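Here is one chain, start to finish.
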Amino acid sequence: AHLVGRALHLLRRMELEDSQYRVRELLVRCLYESRRAGASGLLGEHLVQQKKFALSFLTHALDVAAKPELKDRYAFLVYNASTVFWDVVRPVFRAGWRKHMVAESQKMLDSLTAVATGGAGEKAPKGAPAGVPGGSVPISVDPAWQLELMIQHAFNMEDDGKLDTKFVDTIGEVLKKTPVDVKSATPWLEPLVIASRAYLARGNPANFVKEVDGLIAAAKKEADDATKKATAAPPAQKQELTAFAARRQADV
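Its structure:
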């Protein structure tokens, strides 16, 4: 830890220009400051304060990566930042503490959502690689990971007493648009979303019942579609589609 601290001190003295090296430095500083909390045995409010201090460096890193002249090439660093974010905040994602992390989780989620869209609809500049929106370097953001962060942010808002029901609806919409192959590979995803929405909607169960009815209809349709595709699919794919259809029918 001493060597890491010394290295970070030397990097600060170098005053690196805004580049991927500056972003990486800030992410490492975030992890370093976060782990100092554990090494120092901080608890309660002091732990939360140290975590927020650590996340200030991650927020700075996201701001650098989002600069107009850098954002098209630094999407992968935003994804890396999301894994650092989870490592840092996981110990304080509990009732009574979550409310202190609303701004940070909103910032992280907004940044990840922005790179997940990949600049769709933007005109590629002259000389940009063919097929790359806006000339950006595309990355693949796992919908399951994006949904996980959305759920955590919803719990943070709920803990703060400022739950946005429209945002909760958005979680359901993202789930509906998640590709079938992703749902097949992550059978835990939909139950997690439904259970989370059930908890968040406990104050207004009528809205949740309506959403569940929609999910049931979607599950039936996906099961029927997978069964139809399986009839003309190669043996390996047929087995996978049949298994997926069976799971979706069981969900219903």
